[in-house]
Amino acid sequence: MTQAQQHINYAETLDLRTKQFIIVGVLLGLFLSALDQTIVSTALPRITQELNGLPLYSWVTTAYLLTSCAMVPIYGKLSDLYGRKPILLVGIAVFLLGSALCGLSGEPFLGGLFGGGMMQLVVFRGVQGIGAAALATVAFAIVADIFEPRDRAKYQGLFGAVFGLSSVVGPLLGGFLTDGLSWRWVFYVNLPLGLIAIAFITAKMPRLASGLKAIIDYVGAALIVIFTVPLLLALTWGADGNYAWTSATVLGLFALSAAALVAFIFWEARHPSPIVSLSLFKLPTFTWVMIARFLMGAGFLGAVLFTTLYLVNVKGFSATGAGTATIPLTFGFILGAQSSGLIASRIGRYKKLLVGAFALATLAFWWLSTINADTSYPLLAARMVLVGVGLGPSVALFNLAVQNAVQPYQIGVATSAGTFFQQLGSTIGVAIFGTVLTSTLSTQFKQNFAEVARTAPPQLQAQIAKFQQGTASGGQGGQGFDLEAVKRQAEQGIRQSFAQQYAGIEQAIRSGDPAQFAALKNSPQVPAPLRTGLANIPNQAVQSPQGQTQILTRLRTGLDTAQAQALQQTDTTLDKVGRAVKVSFANSIARIYRFGIFVILLALLAVLFLPDRRLELRRPGSGVTPAAVD
Asked: Where is this protein localized, as stated in its record (predicted)?
């Protein structure tokens, strides 16, 4: 039976120095979780090469996402039941264990465990995700436990800035460790940071118990895992093209997820201490924040992923370079998160800030939707800053709104629910946007390649068709198809063709046979301009060595000119191919941002329905936080 006992007011009992000490440890733990999502992606190509695991490439990320997302609401409830400190320490410990095992993947002493090195990494990344879910969830709840509502705003903004900082540091540090030491160090680097975080947390942090006494909802925990994992798998496999959206596998996963969701709602409505209390949805603040975070998750991740895709396929950045080039987005996100927290702390309200932020984000997405193949990087960077400033406040202010609307013993569940909805929104948004991108690219390639293919020289027709097929079907700009390699291959083929032509002509002329020379004049293998020139030369001219030399010299000059023209035509055609690819991607990604405008507008609409509650301070000595009345 659920029972909320007297809650200790840690905001009153802890001094500021102790709070700051605790925050340092919590920030380190949160930074570990955020950093791991960006640092590993840089090292993945090297890992795949060394462990010979290309077929499992995407699973290194998917395994982490599946376990992390499924565990988020469970950790939120556990932290309400047993206190933030023990759950956070367990999460860090599991995360560090997973990190150490990931770094050991493929080592000889592990043998054929789980089938080999790459599969070991996938399994151990799942372990990492189990731990990371606690870091990303409990950290935001701790802020609500140890600070007054107004003070929370400043620190929630700081926590939001950590995610932005990790997106800058991660790719740079991942590249440095992979190239300078070994890819294994992108996992080992977590160990000292994690141990420092544990030291800070154990030294000063109290248990931070909510006062909630209840039995554990094991069935609810199992059902939320059964709901989440098949849903994310179906969305991931459908978006990646591993299975068709109408395949039995994807439809079966969706059906299983839907059945688990129905069972979860039925069970939670009757359990005395549910994982996620359905009564929370009776609070307008909670309901509208969950809707807005779901939509914001789709919009923000879409902005990051598709901006990176634009930088790689249109502007020619490397994968690592594109990560660095998105720093303006990160800067804007940090600026928006931190400044909104400080302003909310000063004025004691959050709704107007959220409305203004999402209005700005809508304007930013509209501006992004105007990009084309010729948009300069400085103008793109300005757009990214605006997106970051618009979406940055959401991390701090949404948590602030929810935590201010629930009882202290519900803070863990409410905070984790927000994270869960945002992650679901990100996954579903990327799947939908990815499908839109693939279909739009197919149309764009047909349009933009049509004229190129029509005017292309015969020796390039096959290569262009192959390139077009690879880009349209892959949806990733033919990343496995190198345009420069096509150019080199075409140029080599042209030179070989002209060399063979000259050898055949030389043989016919050196034979001294007028009949062979006459046949040569009419051969379709000889370029038309040269046949015209040869027509004026008497057949008997080949009977003398001097005549043969003069004819060959004349032909050599003509063939060299024709070869140069063919090479120039090849370069021109391939430049057109490159331009067609850039225009296709730019137009397709611009269309994605037009869909993004709609998503962000819906989030803005949800924010408009939020009750505007003042961030009141706790009553001295009460020991209980009065929930905002919706």
From this structure: Cell membrane
